[in-house]
Structure formats: C-alpha cells, structure tokens
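Hi all, long-time lurker, first post. I run a small reading group and we've been trying to get comfortable going from sequence to structure in the token notation. Rather than ask abstract questions, I figured I'd post a concrete chain and ask someone more experienced to write out its structure so we can walk through it together at our next meeting. Sequence below, copied exactly:
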Amino acid sequence: MTSSSHVNRRALLKRSAAAGVLAVPAMGALSACASGGSDGDGGGAAEVEATDDNPLGVDAEARLEVVIFDGGFGDQYALDAGEIYMADYGEIDHSKTQEIRSRLQPRMVSGDPPDLINNSGAEQMDMPALISNDQVADLTPLLDAPSLDDPDVPVRDTLVPGTVEVGQYGGQEVYQLNYAYTIYGTWYSRTALERLGVEYPRTWDEMLSVCEKAKKEDIAGWTYAGQHPYYFTFTLLPFIAKIGGADVLKAIDNLEPNAWRHDAVKAAFEAYYELQAKGYILRGTPGLDHIESQTEWTKGRALFLPNGSWVENEAAETTPDDFEMAVAPPTSLDAGDAMPFETVYAAAGEPFIVPADAGNRAGGMEFLRIMLGRESARNFTQLVSSLSCVQGAAEGLDLPPGLSTASQVLEAAGENVVNPRFREWYPELFRERVGGEIAAMMSGDIDPDRAIANIQRHADDTAADDSIQKFQHP
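-- Answer (accepted) --
Happy to help. Here is the structure in token form:
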C-alpha cells in the first residue's frame, strides 16, 4: 500500500480528505505489509545518523506501519499527522481496528509487529506482560529529543505533568506515551437537567432526590456500559477518594491487605448500590455496550453516564443539537468527605507503544514526535473534542460544550486530581475482576459487602501471584 510522498507541512489543517492520501489495508493483510522485514520491499529501516533536522535518525526511505485503535477518537488525527511525516520520510501503511489484542498479539510474539501501535480499547494488550517479555521499546530517546516546535525544549517538557509517569512501570524507562488527556466523571445534558428543573447534585442525598424526580417522569437516573462495567470506576474510584482521601486509592494500587475493606470503599459501594435498589438504573443496562449506553443517554432515557472525555466525539452522531453535553466531578457523599467536591479523576490516556522488534522504531518515535507538535495536538482537539497531553495546545480554540466543561472541571480541581494506577498495573484485575464484581452488584446479583469481599480476594490473589510483576507508588 502506498501513499503520496511529499506534502507541505502547512497544509495539515487545510486538508480534510487525508483519508484518501494514506491508503488503508484490510486488517487481515497486516502481516503482509509489516515494515520490520528485509524482504526487499524497502520496509526495513537502515541505521541513520541523527542530525538537527532528523534527531531520531529516521531512515527516509523506510516504510512505516501504524495501527490505530478505531474507538472514540477515530483515526483522522493520525492520518493528518501522517501527512506531516511523509513530507520528510517514507510511505505509511495505516490501519485501524478495534481488535488490538487478537490482531496484534500474535505479531508481537512472532517478532513481526507494526512500528507504532495505539494500544487502547477493550482489547488492549497487557502492558506489564509486554514489558516483562521485552516486547516494547523504551521511549526515552523520543522524550529527550527536541520538540517539533522549539528545538531548545525537549519533548518531555512540552507534556502535561504526569504524562511521562503513566508510561513508567517501576523504573525510569518509559514504555508508552499516552496522547489524550482524559477527564473522567459523571456526564449529563444541561438541557435535560433544566427541563427537569434541577441542578447537578453535589451530595448523595441530592443525587437520590434528582433520580427520584426523573423516575416520576419515566427517565432513568443512570445508565452505563453494562458489558464493560469497569466504566463505572470512572466515577466510583474518585468517589472513594473523596470520601476517604487519596491514600485509599494508593493502598488499592499497592495491593495492600484489606485496602478494599476501607470504610470509604464500603460507603461508596453502598451509595451506588442504592441507585440499583431504588430502580434508578435504566432497564436493560447490564446488557448494553458502551455505544448502546451512550445512545440511550443521548436519547434522553437516562440523566447520568460514567465516562471519559472521549464520549463527546464517540456519541456525536446521536447527540441532539440542543443537548448541551457537560461533565461534573462525581457527586460527593456529604459534608464529611475528606476531599472537596471538585476532586476529579483525570489522567493522560490513549496509549501508544513502539514495539521492540519494530523494523522502523525510529520512524515510530518520529511519528509520535510529530503528534506531540502543537499543530497536530490542536488538530486532535478540534477533530475529536478531547484535550491532548501537550501543554497549552488547546489555548484559543473554540471548544465544544462537553470539552469546555471538562476543561473547567480540571481547572476547578486544582491539585485535587486523582489517578488510580492499578488500572494499568494490573489490567486483568481492573477489567475482569473489579469490573465483574461491580457488574454483579449493579445488576442486583450480590450486595456491596459481597462485592467488596470478592474484590479483596481477587486483589489478594494478584498480590500473591509471583508471575505478576508488582508496582508501588513512591
């Protein structure tokens, strides 16, 4: 597959038909167009001396294979970044898929991976396992390279604080670069609340009151991605931190004994269980996937949705013009909470990796360097209604309603930002075990005490499993 070779860097934001520039192969053909081989097709990269214009030493003739997760952000932002890349370097084989693990894990094992992977979504590959098997490259050369916009400023200094740390797993090496800066919280329609004559609830008693009023109007209080119940943690985990303090989440991350049995966890689980017990959850929610739950929400059948800031773009097709999408921090329990209402869960997300066996590792890192340039970062925000991890890239942009409120929520939080790490450190525990117990609790199959006991047992099993690498907060 080929693509146009040289384009003007300044053309990026003027060209909206980039999808026609970079040809996109079927995912089934990925293994046939890998850039890591030396089969005579120009795919393998030669060693090139770094220069001021080419700080990572990219072979200008080598092809580059990029695979993007086809989720809430789509892939147009990567296609656009590809135009800039091809102005100076070789052609790009660009693909998108939701089946990251099933499609790419075999190629990682066989030593024939793409050069850059957007390792995201429900089929995200297990990062600790990839690191343990030496399958991902250290991105420190990229972070130490001069940024695209100012050669006197290294890439790492252009990133939102905390971005680099998310890519570290127990050492100084940085194995992934998270591109989007995601604000997690309770998403709602300002229009829907206005029609109901209520404001966003700041305490749990107020939340129950709002949900009861909605129920009388045949509107559910909540819906969520029942098939991916870990979505509920996007509000449940910061709720726990609000009640008991940020150290409760650190204890959970560190797999400390009885961390899940903290009083703050019990209070949070009991509060959410009350939503189910009082009939405030949209009927059929346990069977919905993330798209279906978002659609039920945008159709006005439920008031609140736990989600991340990608939802504005992902739900755009079903969102009414007068919806006035907004996000708020999770509702507090009461005035006795350890952290203020403004406390929010926010973190660099949407991870990218360069496989260790990639045939064009320098090209994969250069592609990321381009994505972290101001032009590409601003383009990303405009295209997908999400902040990037590049500092100040959204300044001066006309933000859509949801992203505008997300920015305001982040600013109001100040230092009261939490980022639970066990999600990345122990992905199976997070997605399958914690998510599964929350699903059972929110469908009424088990009560909060049973859910907590089961989760603590799963956490203890993870802690005791010597085959699983462990991580700790400093």
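A couple of things your group might point at:
Confidence is low (pLDDT under 50) at residues 1-43.
The chain has two domains: 9-179+351-392, 182-347+402-464.
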